[in-house]
Structure formats: structure tokens, C-alpha cells
Here is the input.
Amino acid sequence: MFELIAPIFQRLADETGWNFIIFYDRYEYDRFVTGISISLQLILWSILLSLVIGVLGAWVQTARSALLRGIVDGYIQLFRNTPPLIQLLFFYFGLGAFTPQVDMGGYYEPMISSFTWAVLSLGIFGGAFNVEIFRSGIEAVPKATAEAAESLCFSSWQTYAYVTLPLAFRISLPALTNNLVSLAKTTSLAYVISVPEMTYTLNQVWSDNINVPEMMVVLFLFYVVVVSLIAAGLHVLEKRLALPGYGR
Amino acid sequence: MPSNPEISPHRAAPANWTPDMPLVSIKDVHKSFGKLEVLRGVSLDVKKGEVVCIIGPSGSGKSTLIRCINGLNDIQKGSILVEGQEVNDPKLDKLALRKKVGIVFQQYNLFPHKTALENVMMAPVKVLKEPRREVEERARALIAKVRLSGKEDVYPGHLSGGQQQRVAIARSLAMRPDVMLFDEVTAALDPETVKEVLLTIKELAAEGMTCILVTHEMGFAREVADHVYFTDRGVIVEHGPPEELFTKAKDERTQRFLSQIF
Here is the structure.
């Protein structure tokens, strides 16, 4: 791949001054590819964590215990009403200060890396919205459908897992798509705690090579492509899962 | 929150219950929703193999009563025994009770994301953990029994009301209950599909299934029921064999209700 495009971008730089160094310099190219990989991993893990939190949180919201519901409610208020940037800084610098250091053979590293903090922080941030999204879906599932499951001996978790959630998930999908798209974009904030994802990497590249406009274009395109793919994937899922003849 | 995900393995009735005793025995049941007293001392017995119809005006507590029998509603006072087991017991294993007591609802309440066959198979496979192949065989037979062969892979949204209701009946039967509750199962149906659902219930009754029906189908009650109860404002006003109740009702309220219907 690199060998194929390098001469083209080398010529472009020589003839026009448009310096896309990440496409013709081996070192910068590797940096760029690593940035892509870290960004995609960050997006994937944050989304997965946020979904797990959303599913469990929404289930707890249906619990009888007011204490449990209160805890989830407090979590939502805390993380929905504070900026994700502040949350990242809080997790990394606030909580990170208290996590133990690990001897890496001569030097010390925090046990929880900045990448892990970013996944935790972003997952928890996105999860707060997902709980509310799934809850609205659950509330739209007719009580009688869940009651039918109950009368067929389903336990409350089985009713949730086999009946309520699959239906609520379908109802929630459009809102969920919005939130996951938003979360994918928010991963760029991990830049502030030095996670070497796309934004951070390209910032390094343009600092070293003074080619800000070119790298900005690449950064824009990167997010356009990745986020469009996520949205398109979720739309396909929405079509696939559509209930035949339901609600007409 | 889940407390008891597993069904208790033994489903034998308590030692003090024998099949010649009432399968369902309801004694002086009281039930209120807030200040509204829906059931005010209802008592009735249902023997094994018996078909019992509960009729009466809307709001008389019929549906509430049969929902109490499988623990979907709890009661404030009185006792409901199913095969000698007290339903109104906080320590009751609700899942074990519900395995014995099937219920079919007015609005069918099928799982819209599952096909007819999957609807019937789901509880035995997922809850009772019975082998899938065995359950599938039984489910197909049940779907044939409710005369829906060929509709196994159709989703509820593509079935008519009457067809959905028959899938719902098959779904309940798949759990092999000892008694079936029918909560106004034809009330939401078009007149032409009512017949096929009633026919299904009639066949069940003929096979000896114990059935408790809340219904507005007086002709059906008259034909199928062994015993008919007329309820009004939370009490049983009058009861007896259908011939007696429908032709020689003693209570004025019963007479007025029946005269409005016929």
C-alpha cells in the first residue's frame, strides 16, 4: 500500500507544496496507521462498554428497589450533565493519581494506561445516555407482552433478556445510532490525556512538519469515513431487525 | 429483580391434595386497586376436567379474578389454592405455579419478534431447558392442533387476530399446564375469526383440559361450560349449570344482564 501511494504524494509535495507527509514518509506513515488503529479500538471499546452499561442500567431502572434506581439515576445525572472533556480529565488526572504504579523494569508506569482511562471514561459517558435511550425503548414495549412472558414462567431477567430488551432495542435503535455516532466522535477528546489516537497523532505530525491544513483535511476525512460507516452499519441493522407487520 | 431463575424440579402436588379434590379452590377472595375494591369475597371451586365460565358486566372483576389465579395480581384477603398450593403465600414459587396454570389474554400478547413456531417453543426451551428437538416436535403438533399448519414460520404481525390467538393458545399448551385460563380471548376478534378460536377451546375442553373462561360469548358458555358463574361488582351473584342459569336465573341482576345480551 505504502509503496503504491508514496511516489504520488512525494510528487504532489514536490510540485505543489501540498505536504501529505504521512503518505510518503515511512516513519510518519507508520505513525498514521497506528493512530487509525488506536482510534478504531477506542471507538469500539467505548461503544461496547457504553452498550453494556446501557443494557444493565436500563434493567436496574425497572427494579423494585428505589435505592438501586436512585443509584442509576445519580449516575445518569452526574455523567450526562458534565462535559465529557472534564470527565476525561477527572478520570485521568483525578482518579489516575490514586492508582498504583507498576515497575516496568527500571521505570514506572501507572497501572491503568491513558487508553484504558479513555475507554472507561467515554464508555461511562456514553452509557449514561444509553441507559436513558434503552429505558425509553423499554417503556414503549407493551406491559402486556412482558406479562405474557411472566405467565409463561420467565423470570424477570429472562423476560428482560428474551422479550423486553429485544423489542426495546429495536424501538431504541434510531436514538441509539445518534448517541453512538456522537460517542465515536467524542473519542477525539482522548487527545487531552495523550492517547495516541487519530487527533493526537495528526497533531504531532503537523507540529513536526508544519502542514496543518493538509493534516486537518485528513483528520476531517478520517472522521467522516469512520462515523459514516458506523451510522450505515446501524441503519442496516435497523432494517434487518424491523418487526414484520408490527405496529401497522 | 430476579430471585429464582430456575424452576423447582419437582412439580408434584402437595401430599394433602388428591385429584378428586378441587383443582382450583377460591375462598373469600378480596382484591383492591387502591381504594377501588374489585373483588369482595369471591369463592368458587373448579374440579379437574371441568369447564367453568365466568360471565358478568364489564368492571365486575372477572378478569382480575382469573389473573389472581396465576399470581399476575396478588390478593389482599382470602385464599386461592391450585392443586392444594396456596397462591396467596409470599413464599410461593410463582414459576412452579405458572407452569401448572396457563393463561391466554384478550390481546394475544405474542412475542412480535419471533415466528409462530418460536413463540410456542420459547418458554419450554429457554425456561424449562427442555431439548430443542423434542420441543419443536411438540410445538409443530400443537400448531397443527390449533389448525395453523403452514404458518409455523410466519411472524405474528402477518397473522390475523384469530390466528394469533390460536398461536397464543398453543404457546400456553406447550408448557403442559393442568389448567387453562382464558381472559376474554375473543373480545378483540372479528366475528368471523371468533368461531375458529372457540372451536379450539371446545376441542381442548372435550379432551378433558380444565378450563376457566371469562367470556361474553353466552352461546359458547351455554354449550361448553359445566358450570357458569355470574359476577357483578366484585361478588358472585349466582351460579349453576348453564341450562339453569341461562333459563331460570333467580337473581334480578342476572336476569337484567341476560336480557340485555339475548
User: Anything to note?
Assistant: The mean pLDDT of chain A is 92.
